[in-house]
Amino acid sequence: MSTEQPKPFNALPTASVSGASAAGGARPSVMQLVFKEKGALYAAYIPGFLDGGLFVPTNRDYKLGDDVYLLLSLPEDNQRYPVAGKVAWITPPNAPGGRTQGVGVRFPNDEKTRLIKLRIEEILGTQISSNKPTQTF
Question: Chain-wide mean pLDDT for the chain?
Fold first, then answer.
């Protein structure tokens, strides 16, 4: 197993990321994603995905459609949420505009994850419609 080191968002509040994957990629990568601040959650949240999603800063190589298992901790919430998502976009190294390398993980279309999406949107409140820059599209 390899351990992934946290990689901060550029000039935005940070979330910590750690993770491991099985040798040979036979099983999904597992990453713990901890958001301590609403600003970091805002920067990573992807409301453009119908079922929601998150940007995960990482220097690991992924392909579109790869399975990713997130253990998600949200600000102002002591619970950890498991999310089995899929890589839906990739920001490569040295991306234009100084974008942070990483992946956009699309949440699955299920009831449990719908509740997580609603919880994220509840935490973000009106900030979700802000024009502040994010790591997403």
Answer: 79
Q: Which of 93, 94, 88 is nearest to 137 (CA)?
A: 88
Q: With 0-12 CB in 10 A as exposed, 13-18 as middle and 19+ as buried, what is 32?
A: middle
Tell me the sheet residues that pair with 69: 30, 84
**Which 8-state DSSP code applies to residue 5?**
P
No. of helices (H) and no. of strands (E), the chain: 2, 6
Q: What is the dihedral of CA 61, 64, 70, 74, to 10 degrees?
A: 100
Report the DSSP pairing between strands 53-57 and 29-35: unpaired
Tokens 């935490």 sit at which residue? 123
Identify the DSSP state of 93: T
Q: Two tokens at 74?
A: 């949200």
Asked if residue 14 has pLDDT above 50, the reply is no
Q: What are phi and psi of 81, to 5 degrees?
A: -110, 125
